[in-house]
Structure formats: structure tokens, C-alpha cells
UniProtKB/TrEMBL annotation, chain A:
<feature type="domain" description="ABC transporter">
    <location>
        <begin position="2"/>
        <end position="229"/>
    </location>
</feature>
<comment type="similarity">
    <text>Belongs to the ABC transporter superfamily.</text>
</comment>
<dbReference type="InterPro" id="IPR017871">
    <property type="entry name" value="ABC_transporter-like_CS"/>
</dbReference>
<dbReference type="GO" id="GO:0016887">
    <property type="term" value="F:ATP hydrolysis activity"/>
</dbReference>
<dbReference type="InterPro" id="IPR003593">
    <property type="entry name" value="AAA+_ATPase"/>
</dbReference>
<keyword id="KW-0547">Nucleotide-binding</keyword>
<dbReference type="InterPro" id="IPR025302">
    <property type="entry name" value="DrrA1/2-like_C"/>
</dbReference>
<dbReference type="InterPro" id="IPR003439">
    <property type="entry name" value="ABC_transporter-like_ATP-bd"/>
</dbReference>
<keyword id="KW-0067">ATP-binding</keyword>
TrEMBL record, chain B:
<dbReference type="Pfam" id="PF12698">
    <property type="entry name" value="ABC2_membrane_3"/>
</dbReference>
<dbReference type="GO" id="GO:0016020">
    <property type="term" value="C:membrane"/>
</dbReference>
<dbReference type="InterPro" id="IPR013525">
    <property type="entry name" value="ABC2_TM"/>
</dbReference>
<feature type="transmembrane region" description="Helical">
    <location>
        <begin position="278"/>
        <end position="302"/>
    </location>
</feature>
<feature type="transmembrane region" description="Helical">
    <location>
        <begin position="356"/>
        <end position="376"/>
    </location>
</feature>
<feature type="domain" description="ABC-2 type transporter transmembrane">
    <location>
        <begin position="38"/>
        <end position="370"/>
    </location>
</feature>
<keyword id="KW-1133">Transmembrane helix</keyword>
<feature type="transmembrane region" description="Helical">
    <location>
        <begin position="234"/>
        <end position="258"/>
    </location>
</feature>
<feature type="transmembrane region" description="Helical">
    <location>
        <begin position="314"/>
        <end position="336"/>
    </location>
</feature>
Amino acid sequence: MLQVEQLTRCFGDALAVDEVSFEVPDGHLVGFVGGNGAGKTTIMRMIMGVLAQSSGSMRWEGQELTASDRRDFGYMPEERGLYPKQSIVEQLAYLAQLHGVSRPEARDRAHELLSRFSLAERAKDKLETLSLGNQQRVQIIAAVISRPTMLILDEPFSGLDPAAVDDMVVLLREFTAAGVPVLFSSHQLDLVERLCDRIVILARGRVVADGDAEQLRRSGTIRHRLVAGTDVGWVRDLDWLQAIDVSGNTAIVQLASEADTDRLLTEAMRRGSVRELAELVPSVADIYREVTR
Amino acid sequence: MTAHDLAAPARTAADSTGSVWRLVAAREIRVKLRDRNFLVSTALMLVLVMAVLGIQFAFSGHTSTKKIAVQGPAATAVVTSASSMAQAADAKLKLVPVPANSPANVEAEVISGKADAGLLRAGDGWRLVSKSDRDAQLATYLGQAVQEDAVRRNAAAAGTSLPALQRGAHLPYGLLQPNGHDVKAARIGGVVFGMLFYLAALLFGMAIANSVVEEKQNRIVEIIAAAIPLRQLLIGKIVGNTVLAMAQVVLLALVGVGGLLVTGNSSLLGQLAGGIGWFVPFFLVGFLALAALWAVVGALATRSEDVQSTSAPMTALVAIVFFGGIFVTGTAQAVLSFVPVFSTIAMPARVLTGHATWWEPLVSLVIALAGAHAILRVAERMYRRALLQTSRKLSLREAFTGRDAEQPSRG
């Protein structure tokens, strides 16, 4: 498990990361969400040790995170690029070797992962001859080829077609199934909501929301929709609720408590038939807009 | 591959980061040996060395043979004697008499081009004829032979002998230190060494800078930095490129030495051997120090386009080392030959010209080693500071002091 505690980073007078704390438990897929400049990449670079923190700490399996721990991590940096002019299989094997894998083993793994991502026949080509989407796949292979103990992936899904996204998801699931913690950032909120065991939302260098998708949605403002047999204009006259939108026989309202649901239902039934009274749970995208506003 | 395999521990038994530089060096060498520019430039240099030697061989290495048309044994004797005089004077000239029946035939042989010149009787003496232009060498040696022949005959007529007449007229020219240094060859040798170092420092230096900025520009350096210590990356790059540079220089030297042997300049080789022997360790140490600085120059840039400007101080330094090494003489040269990096060219040049006593190159090499060590340490610090700073080009001062070296990333 990776624990980030009170992590802070200043650039001159500017506070890029402000006392950020969160956890990436073993076997969890944690999504890092936030706008440009929210601090995602800065935090990931600090976790990988390529940028020093101003203050705060990071712990790995309960101990302070060290350079030798990081050497077993897999990392995919924000701005892509391996060696454009070197053959794909050669550079993948080289990166695995840097992590201590023997050369024959490194080459075997490179070929295996390339065929998994349908790139087997391109193995000997130079990286620059691949399409951007395929280069992205190679970049992912580079992050996992050393069989890391933790994965830090900055925008791993950007630029991937839906089929590659699915391949990638299957791959990440294999890692989490084996207990490896995975932290990845993304702008694709629907994807994050669908995949992640936990979501950390950042804004202006701070954590503004942290939890699983259900917890996040529940943390937002839950509204109700009432659909009645007749006009529901009377809702506007109730002082214990807030009418958000009333039109014809449909009203969107915000209730102060769960108990008020029954109260509203009783009121409506007293005035005629009720077709629907439903909770409107916000999506993670709605939550994101709300907390990052 | 199952999920379990995927996440199995990555390390092999032989897992120590202390020797990872070998992998880096091996990659540098592998990539370079497949780089067409490198192969072509090496081949070009070899061709150049061979061409220089070939031209030298064609112009001076080989003895030219001239045919002289003659009539009668007296003329033949003069030509033979002129030929041995030329050989005794190391003039690389051989004269062969071509017998003819009559003076007219002698002239005919010359006009037809079958002979280069003709020697004809003219009264008591001789007349030398060529077709349309005069050959000064022929005139000199045939002239000497004719003169000697005439003096011998006149001496006999006067009742004395040739040695008696020539007594005291001979000026022998000896060398006080026959095993000493040929200053001209020594200076040329110094220039050639300087040139080799200059070219290697410039070409491989640029290659190192570009290889560093390539990794920085495409951010693979972040992946590598997370995987291995940056010191290992730097050492690997320096070692890989130094091995290649040494290999290239040794290859050129072998071709050059082979060329000197083939062209019969083995005595020159004997004189240069000491200089070559010293040049190799000085080259190695000097190159190591410069390679580290070139890596810094690459790390200061953020894109390969920046390398042109960040490398300006290095190209200037290398040029100063080169010109300082070959043009400075006397006391200034003696001082330079003990300054690290500068000594790479200056000290072997002093050894070649015989101005250095035996202990001087040793002391200078120790100083150069200490200098290289200091440069490597400073360079490593600057390289480390500059390498992960990707948002803009850095100045040398910023890399050295580490001030304002880090800027926010975008995410």
C-alpha cells in the first residue's frame, strides 16, 4: 500500500501541491482526477522521485518510500516517448534490464507483451514508425515489463482507441487481482467512474474529494424528481423543501432529509396520483464539477 | 502470461544497481554501431588517412627511373656514375643508359620519347639534351659525374691524381645526435594528434550531448531515473562513448602506422612511437573529462535544437585546447602541458619534440587524472540538476548553483 501524507510542493512562491494526503491500497485501482494544473502530474513525479517534495511524506508498506522501492515501480510519464529511432523490442528489453531482468528473459517478456497488444509483427520496427495509438501501447508495455510492485500511470488512456482501452483495462485488472496497487490519472470521468475502486479528485493542488464512486456520488447533493398525474405547481408553496425546477406535472426538488421523502410522497398522494418519485444521484462528472468549481 | 506471473517479483539474483552503467554503455555502443552517420564518418576518416598516405607515397615515397640515351662506353660510364651519386645522396633517382649507334640516334631516341634525355660528345666535353624542358635533377647529377670525370682526366694529364686535387675540398655533414628528433616530423605528429583529439572530442561530444537531450526531450529519462541512479546513467553514457572514440582513434592510428610502414617510413615511426604511446592515456583521460562536460551541455537543453546554443562554450573550449596544443611553444607550452585537458595535446607534442624529460608526462598524467575526477564530480552534480528540469533551457550557472532549477510541470 502506498500512503501519501501532507505532500506539498512549491515552485518559487506558487503552491502547486498543498498538503495532499491519500492512499492507494494493495489491489486497488485508484483514479486521479483533476483539471490541468491541479497537481496530478506533480504528485506522480514526486511519488516516482523525479521531483523532490517541499514537505510531507510518502510511505510504502508502512515504511518511508525509498529509491530502491521506486526501482520496482512501473511508471508511465505524462509526456510520452521512448527512443524513437530504436527498435521496439530492443528498447523494451533494455528498460526491463535496467530493472534487473536478464536479457533473454527481458526479450521474451517484450515479445509476449507485444503480441498481447497485437504488435508482434512490428517488434523489430523503429518506434517512430508506429501510429501514436500504437506508440502509446508500447509505452504501457514499458511501464509493466519489469512486473512492477506498484503502477503509476499518468494519463494511460489518452490516445487509445476503445479496443486498446479494453486491453489496457484487462491488463490493469490482472495487476490489481495480484494485489498490485495502481494509481492512474485521467480526464475521462466516465472511464474512471466505471473502473476505479477509489477516486481522488484534485483541484488547485488540494484533494477535494476521495472515495469510491458510490461514496462520491452520495456525498453530492441528492435531488428528487416527482412526476404526478396533475400539475405540481403546489410544490412551490411548501417551505420545507427547495423547488429547483417545476414544469407541468414534473418537479425537481431538493429535500433537507431522508424523512422528507415520505412527507413529499404523502403530500403528493393527498393531491392526486403519483407516477414517480425518484432519487437523482449525481454522476461522478457532476460531483467533479461541483467540487472543483 | 497469467495475472500472477505478471505481478511476480521482478528482480533476478544478480540485482545490484552498482553495475547498471554497463547496460547503459552497451546500449550506447549498440545504437551507435547501427547509426549510419557514425559508420559513414568513420569510413570517411579512414579513407582520408589512406588518401594522405597514398599521396605522400606517390610524391616522395618512390624512386623515379630516367632513361638516358648514350653512345659509347664513356657516356655509359658517366651515366652509371651519376646514377650511383644520386643514390648515395638519397635523391630517389635512378639513371639507366640506353645505348644508341650515333649522335643522331641519341637525339632521335630523345625526340621519340624513348629516352628522357641524351648525353652527347661536345668537343672535349659533353652536352646534355632533353626534348622540350630541362630536368634540374638530371642536370645536377650528370653535371657532377661529368665534372668528376673531366677533373680525373685533367689531373692525369697534369701528372697528378683526383684525390690529390680534391684534398680538403670535401665537406662532410654529420648529425651530432643521429637518434634525436626530427623537428618537422615531430611538429606534424603533434598536429595530427591534436587533430585526432579535436575531431573525437567534437564528434563524440556532440553525440553524447544529443543522446542526453534525446532522453530528456522524450521524457524517457523520467522512466530511467526512477529505475536506476542518474550517476549510473551518466557513467554508462561516458564509458560507452569513450570506448567508441578510443576504438575509432586506435583504428585510425593502426591504419596510419600501417601506412608509414608500407611507405617505408619506419624510421619516422620509431621517432613517433613514444609520442603515440603517451597520446593514448592522455587521450583517454582528456576525453573522459570532456565527455562529462558534454553530457552536462546536453542536460541543459530541453530540445535537441537547444544543443547548438548550450554547447557553444564546449565547442569553444575544445577549439582552444586544440589550437593551444599545436600553436603554443616554449614556456607557455610547458605550462599548458601540465594543465588538465590542455595537456592531452600539449604533453604528447612536447614528448615528440623531445622537450619533455621522462618524469614530466607521468606527473602531467597524474594531474590530468585528478582534474578529470574533479570535473566528473562537478559535471555529475550539474547533470543531475539539469536533467529532470524539462520546462526550459537552463544556463550553466543555474545548473551549477541549482538555483531556480525546478519549474512546475503541467498536470
